[in-house]
Every structure is written in structure tokens, then in C-alpha cells.
């Protein structure tokens, strides 16, 4: 554990990357992420956008402690990240639900693992089940608690996956293109589901996405990454009022922002 | 409605058709009963010694199931270890392949020297021949867990043990049950082979005794009994598989 300066605590930096570098296959090989520094406030919703293979997913692995940094350091909640943290929830493009578990049982999974819930899971199962049912209801999946993942549509699976990543009230939510495989209508519906959940629980969110509209609609801060090796090209604060509404995405102001950020990605790729 | 009826009756129709073809071939070509007995001769042989056949069948069934049970316990345990640890996998695989490449008939004489004539060589041969597919399948089930699934667990701070219990073992179950269906039929091969060489009882021994007397219909009766027991046990494990791992055997799953 490393001490955090008073100043950093005061600024409220929850996640802090300093010159973090990731190379796959050891040093000397291709860099996935190159000397990236960023600071994320507690409760901030951050979106990371960039072309394929720009190290966006690597960044999530770094922050969650799944992959170590070759160089630089990562600090989360005042502690230097050395291994997996258990304050995270994670969701992927592929819902990764367990096919032998029902929706309810899938959502309960983190509670069987994360302490202090795991120790008292057996005694308080009904209590936890009520908690899970309530969460399932907020994403509009009531009535499907006992369905198996393969009986659900792609959108419903992603809703379940979101519930699973949030059931243990993690301080940090890491989302790796969670809506990437969905049709546009379902995707936009789930933007609102995610926004509602975030407004209610206020975890720190890092959302990796290809979709600029998605990033601007949901995030407080949008980072644009360059192609491999990934570097931050720009940082843009989105000052739209919350809760944001879908019709706002068609407003001229929103369109302008989308185009401006798009330009940065395109010109960044050309270099 | 009619489709279900066809699906149910098709296996029986194929069996009856094959028997009919067999009978027809023997009758038309006038094949002698001591070369290829027809189904009527075989049935007659079955009816002639029902008690002897039943006792010997139970004996074979006992050694097969005992050897198979050992193979399940040992194969499941070894499969989980091999599948969960890359180091164990690398260390054990060559010797397992070597062991599996040895023809099991070849070890029966050694077993006779060690354990004498009787039930033990049959049990060990049944075990030796049927444990390998269980190990390989269980290990494959564990080794092919999606990396993202593991990430979800590791991010939550799950220990290796928790990952094995919550994901690994359930994930390996369809592979395990698939291997049981192969293993049970192999176990019959093992026990019967051992009985033909190293036993005073069992269907294998009955067939050797019958062949010494040129009682070819009785040899075939023995084959029929083994085949029937194999089918019944296979169906039993197929039923268990559908009950336990229904989530992996989805309806309309077959590419049609």
C-alpha cells in the first residue's frame, strides 16, 4: 500500500494512472497502451473511445488489476493496484452469463464470492434474493427471474449482465463495449437503463465504446484514444444536464460535439 | 405427433429390420448354423440356458460397473486436476497418452500373474480402458472456459477454488456426461476381454467355453446379451445427461 498525498485526496482522485504502459508478451513487444496518465474522480462517469485495438480493453484490465503495468503506476481508492480488486463490477460485449444458472442465480453470483456477502449468503439467501429481484425489476426484467440465459434475447442478457455487475454495489463499474452487439433501438434503451442505475448508485464508471453518441450521451468525461499503441488524444468534459434524454442526442449542440470528437479520431488515425 | 411417433419407433424398426435381413441372408444363402447362426438359432440358445446366461451376465455386469465406477471417480478427479492446472497437464499428458496407447488386452496376462484368475483382472481392465476418455473430456471442459468468464470472476476477487466450484465444475459437466456414454461401452469391452482370458465366470468366459464346444449360437447369444446391457446402460447415462445438463442440450440444437 502506498500513501496518498493529502492533496490528491482533496482533489478526490479515485482512479489515478501515471505513465502506465502495457505490453503484451513481455517488454520489447508491441505496446497496447503507452505512457497513459489520467485521473478519475469518485463517482465520475468516464467514456473511452478510440479505434479498434487502441488498448481500451487493456486499460480496463489495468485498472481492475487483472493485468499489471509494465511501467508507471495505477492507484485506485488510494491504494496502488497489485492484483484484482474486489471493489469492481465488470460487464462485456458478450454477456458471459452462466448457462446453467437462471437470471436470478446469475445476478446473485457476485454475492456468493465477494465478502462480506459470501460468508452470510446461505443464512440470508432470501434477503439477497429480494435485493436481486428488486434490481432485476429496475432494468425491466421482472417475470424473467427463472429463465435461463439462452431463453433470453441479446438485450435481456445484457440487462442481466448489468445487474450482475452492480448487485454487490461495487465502487467501480468497468464496462467493455457492453452494448456493442445490440441493435440500435435496444442499445439506446439500455443507455437509459445504465444512466438510471448510475444516477441511483453513483459508482465510478469506465465505459469503453466505439460509439461516440453513446459516449457523449452517458459520460461526464470522454477520452479519445489514438490507434495502437494507445495514447490519450483528448479529454472532453460533457456538461449536458442530467438525466439526459434521447431526443437531446438529435439537438444541434449534441451533433456538433459528436462531429468535433469524430474529427479527432479520424485525424488521429491518419498520423 | 407423427414425427414424435417416428422418432420413438425408428430405433426399434432399425433393430427389427437388421434382424430380418440377418435371418433372410442366412435362410436364402443356407448358411450353416456353426458358421453364422440366424436370429432364431441365437434366440433358441438364449432360451436353452437362461439361468447360466443370467448368472454370467450379472457377473460381467458387476465387474464392468465396478471398474467403471473406479474410472469415474479417478477420471473425474484427475480430469479436474489436469484441466485446472497447466503444470499438471504438461507433466502428466505424455505418460497418460503412453498408458492409453498400450492395448489393454496386453496387460491382462500381467494382471493374471499379479491377481490370479477371477474378478479382479476384469475390474482392472474395465477401469483401465474407460478412465481415459473421462479424464480428457473433463480436462477439456475446464480448459475451454471463456477467458472473459474468468475475468468476471477474478475481478470479484474469486479464489482459484471458487472459480473451480462456481464455473469449472458446472462447465465441465456436459463434457463429463458425454464421456460417460463412451466410457460405459468401453468398460464392457474391457471386462469381457479379460474374462475370455482370465476368468472362470462371466459372459466372456461363457463365450470361450461355448467356442470350445463349437456352440456358435451360444457365442452369439453372449454377444447379444453384452450388446443389450451396453445399450441399457448407455441409455441410462443419456437420460442422466438430459436431466443434469439440460442447459447444454437445447431443443432444436441440431443443425438441420
Outline of the structure:
Chain A has helices at residues 6-11, 56-64, 103-108, 125-138, 154-166, 184-201, 212-218, 252-270; strands at residues 13-23, 31-41, 45-49, 71-76, 79-80, 88-92, 172-176, 204-209, 221-225, 232-237. Chain A has 271 residues and is α/β, with parallel strands linked by helices. The A-B interface holds A 61, 64-66, 84-86, 88-90, 92, 94, 96, 98-100, 109-110, 112-114, 148, 150, 164, 168, 174 and B 146, 148-149, 151-158, 162, 166-167, 170, 173, 245, 247-248, 250.
Description:
The complex is a heterodimer of chains A (271) and B (256). Helix content of chain A is 34%, strand content 23%. Chain A has 271 residues and is α/β, with parallel strands linked by helices. Chain B is mostly helical and 256 residues long. Chain B has ten helices and no strands. Chain B has helices at 2-29, 39-48, 50-84, 86-101, 104-115, 119-143, 147-155, 160-198, 203-212, 216-244. Chain B starts with a helix and ends in a 12-residue tail after the last helix.
Amino acid at each position: 500500500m502506498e500513501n496518498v498525498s493529502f492533496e490528491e485526496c482533496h482533489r478526490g482522485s479515485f482512479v489515478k494512472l501515471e505513465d502506465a504502459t502495457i505490453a503484451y508478451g513481455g517488454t520489447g513487444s508491441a505496446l497496447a497502451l503507452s505512457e497513459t496518465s489520467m485521473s478519475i474522480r469518485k463517482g465520475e462517469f468516464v467514456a473511452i473511445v478510440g479505434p479498434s485495438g487502441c488498448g481500451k480493453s487493456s486499460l480496463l484490465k489495468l485498472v481492475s488489476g487483472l493485468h499489471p503495468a509494465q511501467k508507471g503506476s495505477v492507484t485506485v481508492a488510494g491504494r496502488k493496484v497489485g492484483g484484482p480488486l474486489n471493489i469492481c463490477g465488470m460487464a462485456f460485449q458478450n454477456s458471459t452469463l452462466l448457462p446453467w444458472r437462471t437470471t436470478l442465480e446469475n445476478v446473485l453470483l457476485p454475492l456468493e464470492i465477494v465478502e462480506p456477502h459470501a460468508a452470510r449468503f446461505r443464512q440470508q439467501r432470501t434477503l439477497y434474493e429480494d435485493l436481486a429481484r428488486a434490481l432485476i425489476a429496475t432494468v425491466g426484467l421482472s417475470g424473467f427471474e427463472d429463465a435461463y440465459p439462452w431463453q433470453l434475447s441479446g438485450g435481456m442478457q445484457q440487462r442481466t449482465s448489468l445487474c450482475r455487475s452492480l448487485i454487490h454495489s461495487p465502487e467501480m463499474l468497468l464496462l467493455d463495449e457492453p452494448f456493442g452487439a445490440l441493435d440500435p433501438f435496444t442499445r439506446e434503451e439500455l443507455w437509459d437503463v445504465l444512466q438510471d442505475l448510475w444516477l441511483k448508485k453513483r459508482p465510478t464508471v469506465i465505459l469503453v465504446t466505439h460509439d461516440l453518441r453513446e459516449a457523449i450521451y452517458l459520460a461526464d468525461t470522454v477520452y479519445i484514444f489514438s490507434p495502437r499503441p494507445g495514447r490519450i488524444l483528448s479529454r472532453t468534459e460533457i456538461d449536458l444536464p442530467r438525466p439526459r434524454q434521447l431526443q437531446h442526442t438529435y439537438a444541434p449542440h449534441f451533433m456538433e460535439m459528436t462531429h468535433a470528437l469524430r474529427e479527432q479520431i479520424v485525424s488521429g488515425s491518419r498520423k | 405427433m407423427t414425427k414424435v411417433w417416428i422418432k420413438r419407433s425408428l430405433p426399434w424398426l432399425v433393430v427389427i429390420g437388421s434382424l430380418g435381413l440377418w435371418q433372410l441372408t442366412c435362410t436364402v444363402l443356407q448358411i450353416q448354423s456353426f458358421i453364422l447362426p440366424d436370429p432364431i438359432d441365437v434366440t433358441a440358445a438364449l432360451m436353452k440356458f437362461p439361468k447360466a446366461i443370467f448368472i454370467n451376465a450379472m457377473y460381467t455386469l458387476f465387474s464392468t460397473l465396478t471398474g467403471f465406477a473406479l474410472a469415474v471417480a479417478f477420471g473425474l478427479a484427475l480430469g479436474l486436476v489436469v484441466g485446472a492446472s497447466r503444470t499438471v497437464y504438461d507433466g502428466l499428458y505424455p505418460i497418460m497418452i503412453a498408458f492409453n496407447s498400450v492395448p489393454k488386452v496386453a496387460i491382462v496376462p500381467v494382471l493374471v500373474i499379479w491377481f490370479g484368475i477371477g474378478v479382479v483382472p476384469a475390474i482392472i481392465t474395465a477401469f483401465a480402458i474407460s478412465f481415459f476418455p473421462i479424464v480428457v473430456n473433463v480436462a477439456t471442459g475446464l480448459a475451454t472456459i471463456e477467458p472473459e468468464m474468468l475475468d468476471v470472476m477474478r475481478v470479484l476477487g474469486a479464489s482459484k477454488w471458487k472459480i473451480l466450484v462456481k464455473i469449472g465444475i458446472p462447465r465441465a459437466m456436459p463434457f463429463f456426461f458425454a464421456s460417460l456414454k463412451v466410457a460405459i461401452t468401453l468398460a464392457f469391452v474391457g471386462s469381457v476381454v479379460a474374462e475370455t482370458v482370465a476368468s472362470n465366470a462371466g459372459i466372456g468366459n461363457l463365450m470361450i467355453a461355448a467356442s470350445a464346444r463349437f456352440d456358435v449360437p451360444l457365442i452369439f447369444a453372449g454377444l447379444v446379451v453384452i450388446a443389450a446391457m451396453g445399450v441399457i446402460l448407455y441409455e441410462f447415462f443419456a437420460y442422466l445427461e438430459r436431466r443434469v445438463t439440460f442447459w447444454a442440450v437445447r431443443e432444436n440444437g441440431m443443425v438441420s
